[in-house]
């Protein structure tokens, strides 16, 4: 700074990190991709060279004594910025909105004579040109990209208002106050109490994540307790999930994720880039990210996916150990990703697609291969349909797409296929998916296939050729659900993803998708003249039950069907496990008659082979002797697990001790070993865990814990029970805490 009358405009260049290689002939500093590192600025910068007696003293000029960040949760900054729920001692604000600080000087501030600036830095190599060093001035003559104004000047205290730019970098900043004297600049020392966080702002109209619906904002930014839907489309189940985005340490953990990905600081103000980077970092597949996925059923080296009750334990563990957390499946990825997005201020929600296709080659087909007798050829059938699949939607503008394609965007952290060389997906515009614009970034074609693929049955001849048997165009993407805003009920958003099946609009969309390279089966093979239906069943784990198959002959001639009845334990991803039932009855049906085939299912046949989702899949195929036609039918049966009983007692008031009791009775004749029980609740209880080595058949489990609610309002305590023999047992209790 050579001009003694100037207000400070840039800090001295921080000391660069030594290079490991020779960079001769190239001027470049170290990569700035860490939000946990800050540059060290000198406390005093003199404009002149030292004289015979050294540098002149600056004590007779304006000096800064104290900086009040107005950071308490009951003060205006956090209340007006909707950040009062964050459990942090630091100031947390949202960009594009003014916040205030109070500066105490050594004497009254004289606007016409005194010059000072508030400086904000982020990262290890802050630069004005990159938006990582921002000086804020308080005179009309000079302003920066962040607006500043003096609000009050009383005695030695000046209250200033600062408005970060609506596109500024999101993360943790250091704040300095620099005072100009004729001889140099005096700057406050680094102080952790003046470190502050700036988040995305869905309440600011010019922010890329602006969401003009207060109910949606409260749900998709502020709500901590979510509901994630699973099961089957005709037997929907739900699990509660504590996002915990305001819990202590979660915000720092989310910023650490971006640091660990080595995402450049300068890109962290763009929600498109942030969500795409985070989509890759939520899984550990190729970048040592947050969660290790596992669908094997063997979780001895970690926590079963069905055991988690929320995101807090996962994120805190990852930030502390800097190692991936074990284990996750799609709803865990979606739950943790939702915490990340809401914590940083990006409106988001978890979405469940029932009968979700995993399209490996982009041909919009799920191929089922039958042998010439109508039996499924498991060796040649590679495709599978997920009973359900969870991903996230986040709300943002898309300046990189044509107008109208902003709004809800799909992001998916479950590692299925690579995108630009990494396991990630999105953001993909929901509007683009609905209208077949699958050419738009990112990964729109893959998501389009998840909700629009056809299930195609082929019969394979002995010479290897395939004959088209049946095309089911309505099975995939049967229903898309998310939690309703402000309620504990589900919201069907299928219409946001696709037009009604068979409508003219749907045909137009599919034709447009084909223009971009998707190839579909357009042939409609003649249907068999015998229908086969399977019943809808509601069965609990451990029950014996009957499977009632009905064959209906629509002709005036008799029909003989050589049938194959297969029952398998199946993962929710559609992958078959153990086959516990296989029968080959021959069914004779009179003209225009129906015949029922009754199959008895004993629990001992399937119990020892169950996996965590407790799904049984029945596939019935058959060949009509008189015509050679193939008939097929499938039915997924979701077995219902026993529930935990969760009860609270005591006076539900802030800081008053209460008691929660979890109870469970083993309904089986066999013992349950290595039983883990977890519980937590937003605003009332951080995650807790207890292990029971053995629960005998028919015996009772009771676990009691004390807790003290930390804030008023409606909340829930959720609990899970998990062991190798029984997965996905949960329970919850709602309570309203008084102030």
Question: How far is the first residue's CA from the last residue's CA?
Answer: 54 Å
Principal-axes shape call: elongated
Stated plainly, the CATH topology of the largest domain is called Coagulation Factor XIII, Chain A, domain 2
The whole-angstrom Rg is 31 Å
Number of helices: 11
Q: What is the CATH class designation of the largest domain? A: Alpha Beta
Mean pLDDT: 90
Biggest sheet character: 7 strands, mixed
What does this structure look like?
With 739 residues, this protein is mainly β. The chain has four domains: 44-199, Immunoglobulin-like (Sandwich); 214-515, Transglutaminase-like (Coagulation Factor XIII, Chain A, domain 2); 530-640, Immunoglobulins (Immunoglobulin-like), CATH 2.60.40.10; 645-737, Immunoglobulins (Immunoglobulin-like, Sandwich). Helices cover 13% and strands 38% of the residues. The protein contains eleven helices and 42 strands. The strands form eleven sheets. Strands 1, 3, 5, 6, 9, 10 and 11 form a seven-stranded mixed sheet that branches. It has a six-stranded antiparallel sheet with strand order 22-19-18-16-25-26, sandwiched between helices. A hairpin with a 6-residue loop joins strand 25 and strand 26.
């Amino acid at each position: 700074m050579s001009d003694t009358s100037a207000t400070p405009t840039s800090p001295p260049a921080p000391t660069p990190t030594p290079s490991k290689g020779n960079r001769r002939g190239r001027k470049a500093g170290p990569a700035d991709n860490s939000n946990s590192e800050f540059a060290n600025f000198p406390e005093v910068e003199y404009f002149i060279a030292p004289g015979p007696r050294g540098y002149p003293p600056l004590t007779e000029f304006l000096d800064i004594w104290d900086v009040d960040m107005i950071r308490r949760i009951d003060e205006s900054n956090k209340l007006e910025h909707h950040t009062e729920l964050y459990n942090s001692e630091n100031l947390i604000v949202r960009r594009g909105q003014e916040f205030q600080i109070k500066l105490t000087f050594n004497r009254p501030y004289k606007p016409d004579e005194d010059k000072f600036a508030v400086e904000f830095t982020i990262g290890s190599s802050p630069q004005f040109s990159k938006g990582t060093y921002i000086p804020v001035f308080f005179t009309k003559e000079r302003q920066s990209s962040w607006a500043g104004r003096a609000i009050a000047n009383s005695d030695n205290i000046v209250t200033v208002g600062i408005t970060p730019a609506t596109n500024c970098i999101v993360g943790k900043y250091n704040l300095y106050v620099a005072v100009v004297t004729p001889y140099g600049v005096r700057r406050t020392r680094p102080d952790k109490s003046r470190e502050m966080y700036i988040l995305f702002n869905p309440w600011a109209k010019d922010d890329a994540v602006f969401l003009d619906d207060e109910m949606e904002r409260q749900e998709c930014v502020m709500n901590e307790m979510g509901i994630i839907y699973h099961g089957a489309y005709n037997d929907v189940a739900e699990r509660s999930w504590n996002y915990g985005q305001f819990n202590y340490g979660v915000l720092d953990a989310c910023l650490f994720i971006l640091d660990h990905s080595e995402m450049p600081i300068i890109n962290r103000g763009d929600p498109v880039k942030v969500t795409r980077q985070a989509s890759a970092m939520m899984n550990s597949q190729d970048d040592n990210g947050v969660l290790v996925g596992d669908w094997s059923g063997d979780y001895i080296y970690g926590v079963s996916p069905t055991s988690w009750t929320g995101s807090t334990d996962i994120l805190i563990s990852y930030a502390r150990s800097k190692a991936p957390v074990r284990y996750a499946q799609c709803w865990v990825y979606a739950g943790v990703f939702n915490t990340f997005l809401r914590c940083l201020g990006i409106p988001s929600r978890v979405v469940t697609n029932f009968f979700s296709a995993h399209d490996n080659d982009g041909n919009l087909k799920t191929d089922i291969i039958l042998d010439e007798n109508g039996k499924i050829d498991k060796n040649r059938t590679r495709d599978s349909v997920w009973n359900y699949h969870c991903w996230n939607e986040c709300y943002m503008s898309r300046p990189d797409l044509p107008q109208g394609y902003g709004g809800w965007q799909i992001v998916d952290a479950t590692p299925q296929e690579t995108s630009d060389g990494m396991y990630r997906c999105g953001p993909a515009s929901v509007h683009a998916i609905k209208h077949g614009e699958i050419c738009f970034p990112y990964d729109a074609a893959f998501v389009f296939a998840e909700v629009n693929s056809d299930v195609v049955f082929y019969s394979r001849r002995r010479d290897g050729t395939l004959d088209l048997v049946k095309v089911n165009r309505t099975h995939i993407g049967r229903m898309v659900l998310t939690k309703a805003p402000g309620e504990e009920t589900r919201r069907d958003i299928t219409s946001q993803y696709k037009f009604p099946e068979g409508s003219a609009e749907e045909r137009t969309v599919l034709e447009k998708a084909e223009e971009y390279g998707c190839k579909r089966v357009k042939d409609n093979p003649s249907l068999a003249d015998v229908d086969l239906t399977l019943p809808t069943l509601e069965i609990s784990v451990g029950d014996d039950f009957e499977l009632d198959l009905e064959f209906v002959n629509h002709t005036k001639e008799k029909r003989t069907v050589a049938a194959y009845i297969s029952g398998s334990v199946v993962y929710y991803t559609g992958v078959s496990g153990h086959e516990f039932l296989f029968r080959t009855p021959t069914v004779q049906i009179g003209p225009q008659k129906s015949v029922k085939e009754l199959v008895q299912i004993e629990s001992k046949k399937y119990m020892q082979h169950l996996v965590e989702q407790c799904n049984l899949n029945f596939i019935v195929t058959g060949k009509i002797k008189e015509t050679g036609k193939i008939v097929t039918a499938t039915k997924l049966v979701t077995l219902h697990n026993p529930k935990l009983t969760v009860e609270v007692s005591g006076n539900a008031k802030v800081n008053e001790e209460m008691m929660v009791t979890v109870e469970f009775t083993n309904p089986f004749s066999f013992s349950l070993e290595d039983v883990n029980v977890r519980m937590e609740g937003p605003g009332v209880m951080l995650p807790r865990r207890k292990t029971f080595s053995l629960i005998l058949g028919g015996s009772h489990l009771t676990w009691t814990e004390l807790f003290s609610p930390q804030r008023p309002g409606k909340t829930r305590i959720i609990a899970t029970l998990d062991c190798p023999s029984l997965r996905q047992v949960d329970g919850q209790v709602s309570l309203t805490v008084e102030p």
